[in-house]
Amino acid sequence: MERDLDDRRGVLRTAPDGVQSLRRRAPAPALGPYVAWYWCVRWDLRGRPAHRQVTLPHASAHLTVEEGRAWLYGPPRRRFERVLAGAGRVVGVRFTPGGLTAFLGRTVGEERIPASALPGLDGVMLAAALTGAVDLDVAAEVLDATLTAIMPAELDPAVVTVDRAVRLVESDPSIMRVTELADRIGLRPRALQRLFATYVGVSPGWVIRRRRLQEVALRATEGGPVDWSRLAADLGYYDQAHLVRDFTATVGVSPARYAARPG
Length: 263
Description:
The protein has a 6-stranded antiparallel sheet with strand order 2-3-8-5-6-9. It is built from 10 helices and 9 strands. Strand 5 and strand 6 (69-73) form a beta hairpin.
């Protein structure tokens, strides 16, 4: 299954037209089990108000380079907010679920750690090379060479399993319970939960809930009225009130208020 490099699920608010750009590029084929894609965000808000970028995270860790420093981040448990001001650029690696664990030997929490924690990687040299890269195509060549040189000698089948599980959730909205996902994967629910704890750092239930909320956010901004009660039923919520509480607790506003906000 190819990855959708144009997938924008989870991006709650985008910057005004013309001031921000996002590019993605697939990694070298050998890195496919570990890296979903490379990405680059540029913005130029000089002379404009700052923009608060809000996203609902996926079950993926990232390596980012900004202002000459390289960092590793685990999947944020809550919504991720970043204020963009002035002009800037971030180059990053979105790992597959479990992909960073295969390199590092453990999951990474929400707090960032230096990229040099990766065995065999010089974070200072990588940051300098990516900062000097004129565009994402050049940065991708650097990242391909760097990550291929330190990738595991053998592919851990557990990495393939957790990636498959997450992609099943994202592609099949009929999966509403961990037991259903475990059955599709061919594991017992507790075994699947242990696998996610070891390789992803979030639970399979967390992944299912995030997919639900991303769908709510998408439907809220498509335009036109939304039957919230029907949507709650479609997504497996007990009732509309549970959907509203879940969305409000995560995003900070109710689905109806979110739908009414511009941008």
